[in-house]
Amino acid sequence: MKILVPVDGSPGAERAVDYVIATASLLKETPQIFLLNVQWSVASGNVKLFINPETINGYYREQGVAALAGARQKLDAAGLAYTYHVSVGTPAEAIVQYAKEQLVDQVTMGAQGQGTLTSLLLGSVVNKVIHLAAVPVLVVK
Prior knowledge:
The protein is an alpha/beta fold. The protein has one domain: 3-Layer(aba) Sandwich (Rossmann fold). It has helices spanning 11-24, 47-50, 53-78, 91-102, 116-132, and strands at residues 2-6, 32-39, 82-88, 106-110, 137-140. The mean pLDDT is 90.
């Protein structure tokens, strides 16, 4: 089974990772786990004129790896193999696109993301993924 876990570094995303770890032993085969962090694009319009692409891409990579760190540590400690990827774009669309590309069987994600204000936005990400995904979406509270 291929499981995609979108991770933003929030407690909700960490709970989703904990759930995958706790239930992995219940599956017939060890799951193939994909971690995905999606960075909102900050480079638009005139910003690209003043900051070179390598700097922008380095920023995305740095922020994405930092957001994935907790999930990676948990999976390493549990002895579960995984791959990880940092994407740039609109979170829901990027999650669904990556799920299609990797032919995942399920998306497991936290019910809410970071912060009070952004939890409203990220809560809408969960709703949008549920509606756009062609595979089951398991939402962990």
